[in-house]
Amino acid sequence: MVKHDAFREKTLETVEYVSGHRSQILKYVAAVVAVIVIAGGIWLYRDNQHTQRVNAINEALKIKDSTVVPEGNPPPFATYWYRTQAEQTTAIDKAFNNVIDKYPSSDEGMIAHYYLGLIAGDKGNNAEAEKQFKIVAENASSDYASIGKLSLAQIYKSNGKLDDGRKLIQSIMDSPTIFVTKEEAIIEMARLIQQDKPDEARKLLEPLRTSVRTAISQAALTALGEMMQQQK
Description:
By secondary structure, the protein is mostly helical. 64% of the residues lie in helices and 2% in strands. α3 packs parallel to α5 and α9 (182-193) runs antiparallel to α10.
């Protein structure tokens, strides 16, 4: 099965988001996923269904990235646009829930749940965010579940449930995925415990400072810098 490389490339942006850094939400570039053709040129039914799911989540993401134009003409080439924020919000919610209703247990359905969680969290609705992330963490395939677990762990952190958060991140450290490597999970574990157990957090981060992966070494150094600032 084709892996969604574009989704993997955006994992660090998601990690930054759920760590409290409101960077741009990861984008799932579904259009690049090709439909597999078997010998003889026969299209498999399941691959046709996969294409429909990909198209559905891609359309939902276009609506999420739509423009609000209170008056006048919309920008050139705008696929979706709305007159009010309320109209846009309703359309976004409907689009993601349509994906969930049609393909509830699919990867695309889980991605829809995840985005609803991100949107809820950005609005300060932690209860709804927790609900959506928990669905992903408990029901998605391991790769997508790992992203849900990271986000859910941050919700637990904000609610003071550090032990629950640690269990989630530890499960990723024990079984890394293509979306969240062991090193990325370690950094998130350090961020989770840095206030209550700074020495333990520092021990987790120190070996990663010299990682040959630039993104990992920079993330570790950033986390260590944040710890130093908090301790002043």
